[in-house]
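pasting for ref
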Amino acid sequence: MPNVRVSIDVPTFSLQVIAERDIKSGSQLFYCYCQPDRSVKERQRQLATYGFVCICKACVNATPESDKLREEMEDRIEKIGDEYEEMFANPLFNIRSLDPLVKLEKDIIKEGLDFGTPFMNLLYFIMKGYIKLGDSKKWEYFNRLNLKPEEKTD
């Protein structure tokens, strides 16, 4: 459950540690040595090369449901992206139509995966739903995040 990511700036030969979320002063920094979108078994296999067993909350509290969420999250969000305009165009679209998206958002946050492009895309789709419904109170929060879906490049 990382709270930072590492980037290497080749021209300056420097290592940058970038916060993925708010970190309280004095708190520990967590970096993911493996792919966080894999099952606990796969993550532990990837970590074996480092000679330690991870005891983070995501590994210790892993369940079949949390593994499934990790493995399917990006595909689920991509599918939402492919279908959201059609969903919003449905004359029966209402606040309850956003429930699956909001539930997915909450599940992702609970699992500590609320960073990166797929999660930001999910927030964008939820924001667009609130805009469609005219719920300015909710969509203003998302609007302040300046969300735009990632452009697909092949």
